[in-house]
Specification:
The chain is an alpha+beta fold. About 30% of the residues lie in helices and about 25% in strands. Helix 1 (about 25-35) links the parallel strand 1 and strand 2 (about 45-50).
């Protein structure tokens, strides 16, 4: 496998998603990237769609990816009614980092030729889940796309790790927002400027990323990759940048109660809350609670005791503060 690459704070993680239409186009694109012919370098994760790869061809495809220094997890294509091939997806990662295919539990129904899922030990400690997705053309939010998206949402909630979903959604991101998956997962759409698909007079942006909220602060850039042998679809590049400093996580805490026992000052000098002050305050509160309608603090005669308790408390606080300073 070669030496394991180390990513330090401030470095870049590069993801590429591409509908390649055939597995041979995927090999050509990887060759161009490896030789620096495209505007991208050191691709960490590559998500592929529409491979047109039969199940019997998967071992050979895996060997071909290994020769190009990529680990791979394939979801092979299915045979159509006319005995052709349809769909097929894959998640690939650079040789220096392992890739662990995820077997979808039988309780979840996700077509393996449309969803390839793997765990990848990158971006954050513990790694992330990477999903290569290829939704049905022309179905938009109808079936089976809506059902699959619901199943994917439930699965990602169950595995509870940061995720990157990449692929050909066959619908624009605005339409995906209507489904609700992105909102319920607190996810973020990462999409380049311009269109990612062009065929004749038709053009749209249907290839993009959806990432979990845990890593959205790391998004550095996103752009299309022209000049590849891929027809109609343009590969999309997303780069995440490791923060120089870990983000500060703010949480709500219950207010700390006032000390009732001996405490230590900042100078570690033992001090005790004056019980006389607490008793005076409690006695005054009791008198006020028992007062009859129309009576005032002045008529109750507790003003002086309350003021004296406050004065004593302030003097005690000032003395402790002076002790810490000197």
């Amino acid at each position: 496998r070669g030496p394991r690459a180390k990513k330090r704070p401030g470095t870049i993680w590069t993801f590429v998603t591409a509908n390649v239409t055939t597995i041979s186009r995927a090999y050509e694109t990887i060759g161009m990237m490896n030789h620096g012919a495209l505007n991208v370098a050191d691709v960490d994760v590559l998500c592929l769609q529409e491979l047109l790869l039969s199940p019997v061809e998967v071992p050979r495809a895996r060997s071909a990816m290994a020769s190009r220094k990529y680990h791979s997890h394939f979801g092979p294509s299915v045979v159509t009614d006319k005995l052709g091939l349809s769909s097929g997806v894959a998640v690939c990662s650079r040789w220096q980092r392992s890739l662990h295919p995820f077997s979808v539990p039988e309780d979840f129904v996700l077509s393996p030729d449309r969803f390839a899922i793997a765990f990848w030990p990158g971006v954050v400690p513990g790694g992330i889940a990477v999903v290569s997705l290829y939704l049905t053309d022309s179905a938009h939010l109808g079936e089976p796309n809506s059902f699959w998206l619901n199943q994917l949402e439930s699965l990602l909630k169950a595995i509870r790790v940061p995720f990157v979903i990449a692929g050909d959604w066959n619908m624009p991101s605005e339409e995906m927002l209507q489904h609700g998956l992105i909102q319920r997962l607190s996810a973020t759409v990462v999409i380049p400027t311009g269109n990612t698909y062009e065929s004749g007079a038709v053009s749209s942006a249907i290839d993009f990323f959806v990432i979990s909220r845990h890593i959205r602060h790391m998004v550095h850039t996103c752009y299309v990759l022209p000049g590849t042998p891929v027809a109609k679809h343009l590969p999309v590049v997303m780069q995440l940048k490791s923060p120089m400093i870990a983000p500060l996580v703010m949480v709500l805490r219950r207010p700390a109660p006032l000390p009732q026992q001996p405490v230590s000052s900042a100078a570690n000098k033992p001090s005790v809350v004056n019980p006389g002050i607490a008793l005076a305050v409690q006695a005054s509160i009791g008198v006020i609670k028992d007062a009859k309608a129309g009576e005032s603090i002045a008529s109750l005669g507790v003003r002086s005791s309350i003021q004296q308790a406050l004065d004593n408390g302030y003097q005690e606080w000032a003395r402790l503060a002076e002790d810490e300073l000197y």
